[in-house]
Design brief:
The complex is a heterodimer of chains A (178) and B (198). With 178 residues, chain A is of the alpha/beta class. Chain A has a single domain, classed as Rossmann fold (3-Layer(aba) Sandwich), CATH 3.40.50. A six-stranded parallel sheet of chain A has the order 2-1-3-4-6-5, sandwiched between helices. The termini of chain A are close together. In chain A, 42% of the residues are buried. Chain B has 198 residues and is an alpha/beta fold. Chain B has one domain: 3-Layer(aba) Sandwich (Rossmann fold). Chain B has eight helices and eight strands, in the order αβαβαβααβββαβαβα. At the A-B interface, strand 2, helix 3 and helix 5 of A face helix 3, helix 5 and helix 8 of B.
Amino acid sequence: MAQAALILQELKRCKVTDVIGLPDNSSSALLELLRQDHSIRLHSVTREGEAFALAAGLWVGGKHPLVLIQNTGLLESGDGLRGTLLRMRIPILCLVTYRGYAKTQGNSGSVPEKLNAEVLSRPELDSVALMTEPTLNAWGLPFDFLHTDDHVSKIPRVLAKAEERSSPTVLLVTRDMT
Amino acid sequence: MLTKHDLLQPLATLRGDAVVVTTMGVVRPWGKYSTSELDFASADSAMGHAADLALGIALAQPQRKVVCLNGDGSMLMTLGTLVTVAQSAATNFILFVIQNNTYEITGNQPVPGSGFVDFAAMARGAGFRETYVFDEAQDYAQHLPGILEGEGPTLVVVKVEPGTEGPLSRGVQEESHYLKPSLAESAHRLRKVLTSND
């Protein structure tokens, strides 16, 4: 797991100005720190699609925002993401917490490669976890993983790549932040 | 009921250095009144997300007014944005809802709730400081200078006649200056303009 304080420190180092998102259990520690620490502005939105559009507007206005949502919200926000960050080629980092990741690892032997209604309705599998990476691939969104404290240092590298490609990129946060 | 001319002409005269974000049925008409580099068309973009995009610009540029000309169908797609705007307390943000009760560019099909939806009441309920409703051109023209100078966030509902705008595109075939570049080029250009004095 990764410490929220380390992530916040890295975001400051990378000159992130704004964080836009919705709370979930995995990111609650980071959100709490952001609420206390006013050096990065925190914006709450009512749905994840809004987060991408608001982030796009902030970037157009000259800021360096970051989106912080859960993978459930990522799936909800398809057109909002497509029509803003992707279509506008905006180099923003999205931290996406990965609900169900542990379950997919625990059942790695039995996670089917092909998704269909039968697989996605199995109660022992978290369908959002099964769909996250295939969806990111389908949407042309590059992604990497943030599993532990050691991976926090990926943030500047991933941001630099986003700038280089002039496109958004995703870091999947696989465990609850502490 | 106003025409689009009644709505846009006074705004084009008074907007000053405000950023103006348009979407759907007013994208091309606005291009006939303005060729400003501070115009941005939320066209070939995300459905219903012009208002939250414009809010982001307003929050990033607090010294500058930002006007969003949103449609009623678009507003209904992201009603939660009313709460996000109110919570943001962006005093420089003016959100127009152009209520023609139809999805104009797809053939004027009625929007849900057309005829009874009250956007101003919803905005007040969401926490907007100022709301206005206009269905008469002279009344609108008289109040517009005060609205543009006043402190927001402000919601302005303008009841306009449905038009005949067709689907939007981008490229050299479009007459409007801000529909010629791609959406990406438009976004990057506007950022450059807005940050040129930073």
